[in-house]
Write a structure and sequence with these properties.
alpha+beta, two-stranded antiparallel ribbon, 8 strands, globular
Amino acid sequence: MRTSWLALAILALVAGGCESLGGPQRLIADLQLRGLPAKLGTDFDPALLGGDGTVVCVGAETLEVYDFTDPEAAADAAATVDPNDPSNVGNAIVEWIGPPRFWLRDEAIVMYVGDERAVDGALRAILGQPFAEQVGFEGRALPGHLQRDCQPQS
């Protein structure tokens, strides 16, 4: 009987830990389940949308995760992104280095600015359709943190 109570206590701790997995860690776990090499990157200044900013690396591709205290705060921040022209974010006009896409999940906004089909496909499978994306993007390769953070170290 004592062993079964211990097993139940361990099971409850493990299940509770899984439910509390949110933001970047949850996204990393979901990407890894799909066979992608996802890992936690560095923190970044989340001034664009607010919250806490954490980079998630998927190979050399960079995802930015804006993590908020609750889903309402994340939804309020998401509402500042023009769904048809995500170069308009609040009062800012952003010049992207690739086609921007934004997803909202619970207390997090995930942003991917890139064109890697495997990454985009996995994000759409995990998070659904983006709430904002720039279709027919013709950007230019600009140096920036989105290109550097997840590059392999030489």
